[in-house]
Amino acid sequence: MRYLLILLALSATCMAGEPITDVSKADEPAATDGKPAAKFTTDAKWETAGYNNDEIVYTILVTSHDPRIIRCTTALQGSYYENGQKQTVSDRQLSTVFPDQQVQVGNWMGMDQQSGATYSVHCHAI
Predict the structure, then answer these.
(1) CB neighbours (10 Å) of residue 44?
(2) What is the pTM of this model?
(3) Whole domain around residue 34: which residue ranges?
(4) Number of structural domains, the chain?
(5) How far is the C-alpha of 51 from the C-alpha of 11, rounded, in Å?
(6) Most CB atoms closer than 10 Å: which of 15, 90, 105, 125?
């Protein structure tokens, strides 16, 4: 999977209008210990990067709106082409988000932008 790389830093410009599906939610309405559900928002976008701005990058961001530290699990589903064959991409990331902060969960390179991607984020307070 040489086309799928997770990067830590990237300079890019945004491309709009491509399909992205967000199925994120806080884990339970109220956790079993009686604490309220975590408050957060998510965002994902297709970007271009690289020396000639010819690499497609998919980025997922999680923003906390909770006064507590939250732990989030992000799942990604997408696809890429290798030797003319469509391959699926599936990844899972764990992140900790501090109150009123934003975390970039990851960047995925080489995915097929026309096929779109699906991601979900589930968070709970720790």
Answers:
(1) 20
(2) 0.70
(3) 13-125
(4) 1
(5) 10
(6) 105
